[in-house]
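Fold these two proteins, one after the other.
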Amino acid sequence: MNENEALVSNNGKYKFYLQPSGNLVIKENFRTMWSSLTANIETFSSPYKLSFSPLGELILRDKYNYLLWQTYNINELKTKDEIDEILNNYKFSLIMSDNGELYIEDEDHNRYWSSWPVRNYNTHIRYTNKVVYSISSCSEELRNNYIYNLFSDPKEYNYYNKTIGQYIDKHYLNNLLPGESLISIFDAYLNVTNAQLVYNYKLNNDNNYQSSTIAECSNSKIKELKLQKNGLYLYCEDNKKHIIVKLPNDENSKYYRLSIENNINLEYPNLMIMDVKQWQPVWGLKPVRFLNNVNGYEKSYGLYNRIIADTSFTT
């Protein structure tokens, strides 16, 4: 549903629609019966749109697909197998009744949400931080545009908790989309714009940010930055691929993590890929030192741009 489009009750008395301000309302003629209270929120941008998820959720997004508001659905508490069964076998409807109640129900008339506060399922969620709730092949994915880590195999960290009888999804990601950033507790962040992949950092004892462009899409927009089991890649919308680094695809590759790391021996925080199982660095934007020898004349580089020989070393 787009702005100023309406869902009308059969008797024509009640209308549910999305205002250009981003507010969802139910009107009885000119009287407001219910509102989502999402009008003119400063951090979001019009035009707004309302969608209906395969799990029977109303989801309100702005022009950049950031969430403002969504209905709370009890189906979110079910296990992964139960959710798969719902997606395959259930159909949901949004109904504007002749009594002025907006509600969501399934084919058997079981209700999952209502605009009336007297109903059991009447809660919703309003977002204060920008997040993206994307629907891809009936798979729900909650995204924040500020992310601390990327994982080569996010599903490796999900598990079934026998104590509570529930599948625990960590919602880890393996990619960054335009407008999203990989952040850290240090003075550094990786930013994905529409055209460039830029690393921003502060040198020790310096208040000004330094910027380094890692890769860019020159003839089209960026599609995504993706950490895979065999490396880190920047994909463009014109199907071009930029290789940031190729990595060994072995039994440990599913444990790769892209994050920003720092310690007292670094001049500034470094963008690094870590093997979190063996807890060792695999690659760094500023080359990681895996020294075979120390010599008195020059440094040399090996696989994955690692420094394998240098004139000095630190503890």
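Now the second one:
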Amino acid sequence: MLKVSGEKKADEETNGDKWHKAERTSGKFCRQFKLPVNANMENITAQLEDGVLKISVKKMAHERKQSKVIDIIEQGRSSDDVKQQRLLLK
């Protein structure tokens, strides 16, 4: 879970060419985001530019699973009737 919280203080009005409209001018805020299982919690970055917060969460490297062979022994009704098979798991 990623939790972003903070407080925006009221801005002073300035005369100039640029004007920015914000729905919430001041006050506390809190947002929570559910992260995927493969989120790399050790490699999260955050940048604040022109009042916009950008949070980047990288995925963990995909671990390549190795194939595995499992022997299956099937015994019949008589003790002499034994079959052996192999199962390949990927």
